[in-house]
Write a structure and sequence with these properties.
Layout (H helix, E strand, L loop, with lengths): L1 H32 L27 H12 L1 H10 L8 H7 L11 H12 L2 H5 E11 L3 E8 L4 E7 L3 H22 L8 H15 L2 H14 L6 E2 L12 E5 L4 E2 L10 H19 L1 E3 L7 E4 L3 E4 L5 E3 L2 H16 L2 H11 L1 E2 L5 H16 L9 H14 L2 E2 L2 H20 L5 H16 L2 H35 L11 H31 L12 H26 L1
């Protein structure tokens, strides 16, 4: 049986490889046709070598990139849409051009859509639907949307996955992995961009977007989050006629946000609601629509808002929420050093990076964007773009989870300023930021964190005898190896003294944190609901922690 299984797996792998080679050749042909033959010049695949010619194209390179992605189909259209939100990776001219990939995708003939619905729904298709309009109301790279009516009389929209798109996406993702590895192998500096990581995250995103059950769950969760808010409408999901390839949703009668002004809407109210919805998702729910472009926002009768297309969402952990709240609050107060510190904490550093140099560059970015500028003139999008590009220059990667968050912020602010200039995005977000800052330093939150730290210390204390025993055992058995760096006498003595000072300071810090936690239930609260003694101990702990950090920085610079 194992032999048979190996043969079957090998055969499947061969079939996939043949399919990938055929698709890779097709991709190469498109790239060469649009003047990007150099991207596949070193890829050794049969049939590609003879394509290496003719890069002569009169159009600008960003336009050719967009046209190539449109020719390559759904996966690359979606990749272009994702890249259009990564100004830290690609030039601004490409960002602007790739943003037009949000629209104008060729439609699938109705006969193919109908056949796909029959495959997905079976007998439920005729049992559930009274009528379906063959003419689509929206086309996208993954699915197509049609108006319909259920037999109960409800007006709905039906989102149908494009036939064969899931298999095509799987093949294209394999090729993208291959091309990313090839690029990183040939150009070591490309590893800083983490191309393989970008493809991996894109793979996860496409896995979700090609399974419409995921979008159904996201839509239901967002609808639940906005329950009780009559001004923000998220459509109902009709589960009985929804599958992995078909999603049936409540029809929302309205106009797209970009047409609301000419339709006579009160744009100040519309803008405030749009920013209110985006801020609640980011700062309250921690579950946000990461692609809130104009096509996904409807203005309904009464100037209410309808939110659509929850295929791509982001989630905020508590730490991420603290970081973004701290970043926005520091931005509002023009606290440049705090912004540098938060971005430093967020970034992934695979090698030693000079914090003072990084901070100096952040301060330069801040000067460029904020000196002599009022809050209403601040552009968060440009500021975040420059910060991410600056981090990359210092070989600091911004985690993908944060790039999705920054993408949501940039999209929200850009859309608001373009379509609803009557409102100031920063000012509209500040009430949410202020509430979260207060909650961050509330007595309950501080008590909770103090108890968490206390529990961590208790766990470490319980583990300490075991760890020490293991170290002694390793030493006795000759398994313990300690790297030693020989330093000149005075330098070695100074280094040892610094290490001893840091150990003493670390013990003092731990004791102060534990004492502050134990003192919380006692004493009369006077400030933020915290007893004075706990406040004093927390202040002392902060001073000791600051000395530890600054000592660490001096040690590194030394």
């Amino acid at each position: 049986m194992p032999i048979v299984r190996d043969v079957v797996n090998t055969t499947r792998g061969a079939v996939q490889a043949v399919r990938d080679i055929r698709r890779l050749r097709e991709i190469a042909q498109v790239l060469v046709r649009h003047g990007f033959g150099f991207l596949v010049a070193n890829v050794e695949v049969p049939g590609i070598a003879r394509l290496r010619s003719g890069d002569g194209q009169d159009r600008p390179m960003p336009v050719r990139a967009r046209l190539a992605m449109e020719d390559l189909g759904p996966t690359f259209i979606k990749l272009g849409q994702v890249l259009s939100t990564r100004p830290d990776l690609i030039p601004e001219a490409f960002v602007a051009e790739l943003q037009s990939l949000q629209d104008s995708v060729p439609q699938v003939p109705w006969e193919e859509i109908r056949a796909e619905m029959e495959r997905e729904l079976g007998p439920a298709l005729d049992a559930s639907f009274e009528s379906i309009d063959p003419e689509p109301i929206a086309t996208a790279s993954i699915a197509q949307v049609h108006r319909a009516r259920l037999r109960g009389g409800e007006d709905v929209v039906v989102k149908v996955r494009r036939p064969g798109v899931r298999e095509r996406v799987a093949t294209d993702i394999n090729i993208l992995y291959f091309l990313a590895r090839q690029t990183e192998a040939q150009f070591p500096e490309a590893k800083l961009l983490d191309l393989s990581g970008i493809v991996r995250e894109f793979d996860k995103s496409m896995e979700s977007e090609t399974d419409l059950r995921v979008e159904a769950r996201n839509t239901e969760r967002c609808r639940s989050n906005f329950e009780g808010d009559d001004d923000i409408v998220v459509p109902t999901v009709y589960r009985a006629c929804s599958t992995a390839g078909v999603l049936t949703l409540e029809y929302l009668p309205g106009v797209k946000l970009r047409l609301a002004r000419e339709n006579g809407s009160d744009m100040r109210r519309v803008g405030e609601l749009y920013l209110h919805a985006a801020s609640r998702m980011l700062y309250e729910h921690g579950f946000f629509h990461s692609d809130l472009h104009p096509g996904n926002v409807l203005v309904l009768p009464g100037d209410r808002l309808g939110l659509l297309d929850f295929g791509m969402v982001g989630r905020l952990t508590d730490d991420m929420k603290d970081h973004v709240v701290g970043l926005m609050f520091a931005l509002h107060r023009r606290d440049f050093r705090t912004i540098a510190r938060i971005f430093w904490e967020i970034g992934i550093k695979d090698e030693q990076v000079s914090y003072p140099r990084f901070e100096a560059d952040v301060l330069e970015v801040m000067d460029h964007h904020f000196v002599g500028t009022s809050m209403s003139e601040i552009r968060i999008g440009g500021f975040l773009r420059d910060l991410m590009q600056g981090a990359l220059r210092h070989r600091i990667q911004v985690p993908t989870s944060y790039t999705m968050l920054f993408k949501a912020l940039i999209t929200t602010e850009g859309l608001a300023r373009m379509l609803v200039p009557e409102v100031d995005p920063v000012e509209e977000m500040m009430p949410f930021i202020t509430r979260l800052v207060r909650a961050r330093y509330s007595r309950d939150r501080l008590e909770q964190e103090a108890l968490l730290y206390l529990g961590s210390f208790q766990y470490a204390a319980r583990r300490l005898p075991i760890a020490l025993g293991q170290v002694l055992s390793d030493y006795q058995e000759g398994r313990l190896k300690v790297p030693v760096e020989l330093l000149p006498g005075e330098k070695a003595a100074a280094a040892a003294e610094r290490r001893a000072d840091r150990v003493v300071a670390a013990v003092a810090l731990a004791g102060l944190v534990v004492a502050a936690a134990l003192a919380l239930p006692h004493g009369r609260p006077v400030l933020w609901g915290i007893p004075p003694f706990s406040l004093v101990l927390c202040a002392l702990a902060a001073l000791v922690g600051r000395s530890l950090w600054s000592g660490r920085g001096r040690h590194r610079r030394g």
